Amino acid sequence: MDFQIALLLGQDGITNGAIYALLALALVLVFAVTRVIFIPQGEYVAFGALTLAALQAGKLPGTLWLLLGMGIAVAAIDLALAVRRGTARRIPAIVGWNIVYPAALTALLWLVKPAELPLPAQVLLALAVVVPLGPMVYRLAYQPLAEASVLVLLIVSVAVHLTLVGLGLLFFGAEGSRTPAFSEGNLEIAGLTISGQTIWVVIASLALIVTLYQLFERTLYGKALRATAINRVGARLMGISTTMAGKLSFLLAAAIGAFSGILIAPITTIYYDTGFLIGLKGFVGAIIGGLASYPVAAAGAVLVGLLESFSSFYASAFKEVIVFTLIIPVLLWRSLTTRHVEEVE
Amino acid sequence: MQKKKLVAGLLVALASMAAQADITVGVNVSATGPAASLGIPEKNTFALMPTTIAGQKINYIVLDDASDTTTAVKNARKFVTENKVDVILGSTITPNSLAMIDVAAEAETPMVSMAASARIVDPANPKVKWVFKTPQNDVQMSTAIVEHMTNAGVKTVAFIGFADAYGEGWFQEFSKIAEARKLKIVANERYNRADTSVTGQVLKIMSTKPDAVLVAGSGTPAALPQKTLKERGYVGKFYQTHGVANMDFLRVCGKDCEGTFLPAGPVLVAGQLPDSNPIKKVALDYTAKYEAAHGKGSTSTFGAHAWDAGLLLANAVPAALKKAKPGSKEFRAALRDALEGLKNVTVSHGIVNMSPTDHLGFDQRARVMVVIENGAWKLLK
């Protein structure tokens, strides 16, 4: 192996690692705020990419029907609760977000021809379809169980994952799709050709990480999320709605997932079930960060990307074995170095 | 109370009468899970099959095994114990089909598999007496590739395949034949269906400078190594396996797949076959039926394997009906004998001549070499 190959492998590893890092951040965020180990994170990656591909092919994406259906389900539950509790002032917001918004989006996609729009508009439309699924999934699957143990929430996650993968197969079929690159240009640095999309992935990931940091440090909502993550009861006593925090964290997780999918769709073929493996690798990164530290999780995810890239060169048949075995020494090291306090349940 | 009993009794009598009169076919396909791109066209094909053969009504019971071996066995057990099927069709993939052989042999029920591996009908296994299959063996396809490579002056070849039974099976068959023909395999790499990058494997392949690369994958995931190789500036020949023979592969691979060679069943290029070829008519009949139901360009060779299983039944059932009534052990044995005795049956993938040692029955006519030209399959003469 010469220096040139090492550089190419490093570049490939960092590109994949940047995506894993985004997913690792989303997983840490969701776990810290809601204690949910969010296995379906990867599904948003696949949904984001495939929704964009469907829009570009001039078809109405199946996720739109999911949005409509889940919107109606959420609205039905929330309206019944609002009527029973006599909180009529919430009704316009419930109807607006869960029925009017999906219906308006459907009408918009029906009227304009998404295939003819410029790429940024298509990306925004795809995000508009997929991202609201995050809080809706939280409302339907997790909110009724918000106080349950981590194990119960994990079991719910498995169920949600299987449901979403099955729906993905129904919506998009078994074969994969690719989308055109954001920019066709290549960059040459020191004899090394870097594709435009790689640069897009790395820059967008960095920008997203900085934005998240600003969100947590500077905004009231970000601070509310951090407060909930540190102490749920304390946050509630301070007037922070844990339901709102849960929905917000799922909204961010869905946005990060869908955007990651849109970023990598031009580099690789995305299938309805691609997301699971990507999400799992992000999860390995998140575990390295102990499901608590954002910077360590991001660094861990980049490490996973690099390890994957180099092991695919040396021993391609054992690549996944090598990547997932990484979790064992990490867990050993963590359990030896940190004092574990048994969670009261 | 009396009335209820009477009605129940009548229903049971009716049900048993129906079971006696009709032929029950248990279909097990992998319509979800990793093999879904193969299983879905097969499932669609069963919906187009004739509902009567020689005046007998045929009941199809279609189950999905989710590409999972345990579920496949469970489905097969359900067929033989609950549904009392006369014949089992399936499964889509090799591991599932191998696992179902035991059930079929134990219940003495004939089974027609739609999976590729030659091991499914290996005559050395006594249980295989009950098992038949419709897709060509990997050996036949490998021979076609190696032949084409040596004729084209290829001396060194790199192999990259799925890290599963498909890739492993191909490597074993291909390496054996390649060795015999003095073709040198300079790299042997693996990747996963859902991988987002194969840069590592591709760099390794490029460092060995092969004359040709063989990609052993199925469906659209097989496009990834080829696209990455092109991206990195590889200029040698590309070979794919018949696992990619559907329109989605052409859509995803686009211009990077121009000039790629692959072996395939004749049904893929049915329209280009000479009129003298008897397969043409049968294959065109299938594509016309399938495209009428699912749109133009929607046929794949996988669905045709299912159709061929149906054609085998259509040819074997009349002979079996002469010997016994459907639903009985005797009928199942007669159906098995009839399947084994099939001679010169034209199906969409070739011409079948079964024998006690050959439960596939295909010869050289069951495969053609195809090249991808202008985003379409073109028959190589």
Automatic annotation (TrEMBL), chain A:
The chain crosses the membrane at residues 17-34, 64-83, 95-113, 119-138, 150-174, 194-216, 248-271, 283-306, 313-333. Keywords: Amino-acid transport, Cell membrane, Membrane, Transmembrane, Transmembrane helix, Transport. It is a multi-pass membrane protein. It is found in: Cell membrane. It holds the Pfam family BPD_transp_2. GO terms for biological process: amino acid transport. Its main location: membrane. GO terms for cellular component: plasma membrane. One of its GO terms (molecular function) is transmembrane transporter activity. Belongs to the binding-protein-dependent transport system permease family. LivHM subfamily. PANTHER family: ABC TRANSPORTER PERMEASE PROTEIN (PTHR11795:SF450), BRANCHED-CHAIN AMINO ACID TRANSPORT SYSTEM PERMEASE PROTEIN LIVH (PTHR11795). This is Amino acid/amide ABC transporter membrane protein 1 (HAAT family).
TrEMBL record, chain B:
Keywords: Signal. It comes from the Bacteria. InterPro entries: BCAA_transport, Leu-bd, Peripla_BP_I. Residues 23-375 form the Leucine-binding protein domain. Pfam families: Peripla_BP_6. Residues 1-21 form the signal peptide. Belongs to the leucine-binding protein family. This is Amino acid/amide ABC transporter substrate-binding protein (HAAT family).
